[in-house]
Amino acid sequence: MSAIDxxxxxxxxxxxxxxxxxxxxxxxxxxSASPGDxxxxxxxxxxxxxxxxxxxxxxDNELVAVDESGDDYGFYVEVA
Amino acid sequence: xxxxxxxxxxxxxxxxxxxxxxxRLAPEIDAGDVEVAxxxxxxxxxxxxxxxxxxxxxxxxxxxxxxxDELVDDRVDLVIDRVTEIDTDxxxxxxxxxxxxLAYDHLVVATGSTLAADEVSGLSEGSHDxxxxxGALALRDELLSMTEGHLVLxxxxxxxxxxxxxxxxxxxxxxxxxxxxxxxxxxxTYTYPINRVHGNPHIAEWAEPIMSDRDIGVETFFNADSVxxxxxxxTSMEGTEIDYDLLxxxxxxxxxxxxxEAGLGDRGWVxxxxxxxxxxxxxxxxxxxxxxxxGVPKAGSVAHYQAGVVAQRLASxxxxxxxxxxxxxxxxxxxxxxxxxxxxxxxxxxxxxxPAPPSxxxxxxxxxxxxxxxxxxxxxx
Lengths: 80, 381
Description:
The structure holds two protein chains of two kinds.
Chain A: E1 10-13, H1 21-32, E2 38-43, H2 48-58, E3 62-67, E4 73-78
Chain B: E1 3-8, H1 12-24, H2 26-30, E2 34-40, E3 44-46, H3 50-55, E4 65-67, H4 68-71, E5 76-80, E6 83-87, E7 92-95, E8 102-103, E9 106-109, E10 114-115, H5 123-126, H6 133-145, E11 149-155, H7 165-179, E12 186-191, H8 201-213, E13 216-219, E14 224-228, E15 233-236, E16 241-243, E17 246-250, E18 253-254, H9 257-261, E19 270-271, E20 285-287, E21 292-293, H10 300-318, E22 331-336, E23 342-347, H11 360-377
Parallel strand pairs in B: 1-2, 1-9, 2-5, 9-20, 11-12, 11-17, 12-13, 19-21
Antiparallel strand pairs in B: 3-4, 6-7, 7-8, 10-18, 14-15, 15-16, 22-23
Helix pairs in contact in B: 1-10
């Protein structure tokens, strides 16, 4: 059950993907998204906790929330 | 009952599998209890690693082509046709040229990768690649005429075939230009989508100091968004713009449309169990090689090892025994670090790679394997 009250436009389930799979999956989805869309990345890779914020910082997109409440991580990225 | 096994795709995975099954199930095939069909839309088998060398004038495209009918065991029914539909409910394949559908009991999808440069604006017009015969030939001509300027290698799409090949390209270009006395007049830049130079952190850690020592520029967090072929600029999603004189790009990759239309997975890749290689969205379907989403590299060694696993599993199923063979993620790659030295990595799902120190011996090992690859395709090595 998500602790984040945000309805994503699209969800990328990268759980089980080997590094750097989750970040690359996110980038691929953001590439085809529209401005204002919120893409939710689900990842079980600890490395995503650094990879994803670092990448978002490099772009005009915004990491609006990170859900760490469950077994996996949920990254909510709003597309610029 | 006759077991009809259909293998879709005559690349490394499909061809090795067909020959493995032909030997493994020879008694059943000879008795008419098993039929193995290999379907490919090109009468030739293509060994893609040759193209990297084509770009530097060291090989010709013909070195990477052999007729499939010279490679495949006579027990295999070789069908040169294009599959237009996969019906996993009725277990039938639609074919472009044949009169009717091809029925199967067991299907193996080994359809490989295709290039999708048109997904990035200007990429087709503004860049060259060495992931196709025509691309490698055009890139060779451009490299031969380049005497100065900025050579950019941009990894645009991932996953892509042979994850080591972008590093190999810049290492070989560096050496090749030095040997020709041109390196001081040609800058080389390498771009990568994430915050290191390779998806695997161990390989990235190994490669970064080599690139620094050899004055190969690096732009990380660079996801090419558009190319302006007239202005010769490459712009990233992150807002960085790079001028180039010659752009060698790794375009986005996709599987084949017929896989996606069959509902087996997104972008033409088949969702599989990464150990059994069984498709997750259909019964009695396996996938291997580039077509299977296992998370390991899209590389020939992977397809080769996965073919052995699928062959064992299919043989067990045909013989009504539990299938026990599983794929452990085994991957082998030679990595050229110049025109006369190479490294080597071996890894699997549990064990990370540890690149070997570059040596001339490993370089010749890679070239020797490229020559002996045809024994692999025949199922002998």
